[in-house]
Amino acid sequence: MNYTYILLCCDGTYYTGWTNDLEKRFQAHVSGHGAKYTKAHKPVKIAYYETFDTPEEAMSREWHIKKMSREEKIELIEGMDQKK
User: Fold this and answer.
1) What is the pLDDT of residues 12-59, one digit of tens each?
2) Which end of the chain is more exposed for a tag (fewer CB within 10 A), N or C?
């Protein structure tokens, strides 16, 4: 399984990425080994994720989410919360 995810960081910013192991990748971000951005903006939680069959689909979705405005990302996250 492949994932596209959005992390909520401690300063209220969002980080978007993709992985094939969501929990392992989150722990890498938390420990400071995930990405340059999350070293300076410590992640608090996984705010959103989607699953995909292939890495290419997950990477494509990551690219599209990164092009979204902050407001669009918040709407996406809130939409997931309503589905729970």
Assistant:
1) 999 999 999 999 999 999 999 989 999 999 999 999 999 999 999 999
2) C
Q: Give the fold, CATH level 3, of 2-83.
A: GIY-YIG endonuclease (3.40.1440)
Closest CA to 48 of 20, 18, 24, 11: 18
DSSP state of 10: T
Residues 6+ apart with CB under 8 A from 55: 2, 18, 20
Contact indicator for 26, 63 with CB cutoff of 8 Å = no
Quick check: 5 and 17 in contact, CB under 8 A?
yes
22 touches 46 (CB < 8 A): yes
Q: How far apart are CA 54 and CA 35, in angstroms?
A: 22
